[in-house]
Amino acid sequence: MKHHLTGLVVPTFTPMLADGGIDLDSIDKLAQALADDGADGAFVCGSTGESVSLTVSERLDVARRWMSAAGDNLPVIVHVGNSCLPDCKTLAAHAQEIGASAVAAMAPCFFKPATVEDLALFCAEIAAAAPELPFYFYHIPARTGVNLPMVKFLEVAAGRIPNLAGIKFTSNDLMDLGRCLRFDGGRFNILSGLDQILLAALAIGAAGAVGTTFNFAFGLYRRIVSAYQAGDMTAAQDGQAKSRELIATLARFGGLSACKAVMKMIGLDCGPVRLPLRNLSSEQYDALGAGLERIGFFTYRSKGFENA
């Protein structure tokens, strides 16, 4: 069982049709784009993939198509989290059946676990449904409202979840992140989940990251990692500054809705978002494109941030 994912893992969008259905055929093109970029993995049906807005049947279909499209060279991590535990177990068992590389699950966000013990019990049930796969807890407190100390979660869950591999750590709590990275001699695989602080995560020991903007700015993040590893902090900091401006621009236009709009701009149309999210109007779409032009996105995306 492979526990440690490294490098840049891309959380994938779920392509949708104009009528709101799932566009499974477009997954093949997305998988090819990740392969062309040199991505180190695909994180399927997570927040970027609008998983909580999908039916269980849709999520099964999306995961199955990704496994077909990814082939043997692109690891696929399937997010199976949900507020309904039996649904989580169904999704996890299916991920193992289709040969996924790992499963991950976020905390339920309506009836929430109050303690790390409660969270560990919930996760143990999911992980046991896919015992042959590494299990990752997906820590995203800004979305779930569950903000428990992850180093304490590792302490509790380590003895209860035999296939616990680590955490997708989507939080800006660098102290907790650093403690998780060092827990039990670095036993667990901790993936940074906030694009805007990738460099900080690298500096305290993270060896892998998962980020939405990797979908359309993969080269930027690859160069940040390469510059850091080469000891060129000036270049790494410059790249991270461009990442922050990119994310700030996207945030002004609605986050995920804006991200799907950017995918269309670069020729990888993933269709609309699903309600309650709202798609950009044509005016907003044009304004977003102009904003990205102002920060040099289209230049550094193709030529490297050192030329922007």
Number of strands: 8
Annotation field: number of helices:
13
Assign the CATH superfamily of the largest domain: Aldolase class I
What order do the SSEs take from the amino end to the carboxyl end, as H and E? EHEHEHEHEHHEHEHEHHHHH
Amino- and carboxy-terminal Cα gap: 42 Å
Strand-residue proportion = 5-15%
Poorly predicted parts:
none
Helix-strand makeup class: alpha/beta
The total tally of domains equals 2
Shape: globular
Strand order of the largest sheet: 7-6-5-4-3-2-1-8
CATH topology of the largest domain: TIM Barrel
Q: Can you give the mean pLDDT? A: 96
Briefly say what this structure is.
The chain is α/β, with parallel strands linked by helices. The chain has 13 helices and 8 strands. It has helices at residues 26-37, 56-70, 85-97, 116-128, 141-144, 150-157, 174-182, 198-203, 214-229, 233-251, 256-265, 282-294, 297-303, and strands spanning 7-11, 41-44, 76-79, 102-106, 135-139, 164-169, 189-192, 208-210.
Write the layout of secondary structure elements.
Layout: E1 7-11, H1 26-37, E2 41-44, H2 56-70, E3 76-79, H3 85-97, E4 102-106, H4 116-128, E5 135-139, H5 141-144, H6 150-157, E6 164-169, H7 174-182, E7 189-192, H8 198-203, E8 208-210, H9 214-229, H10 233-251, H11 256-265, H12 282-294, H13 297-303
Parallel strand pairs: 1-2, 1-8, 2-3, 3-4, 4-5, 5-6, 6-7
Helix pairs in contact: 1-2, 2-3, 3-4, 4-6, 9-10, 9-13
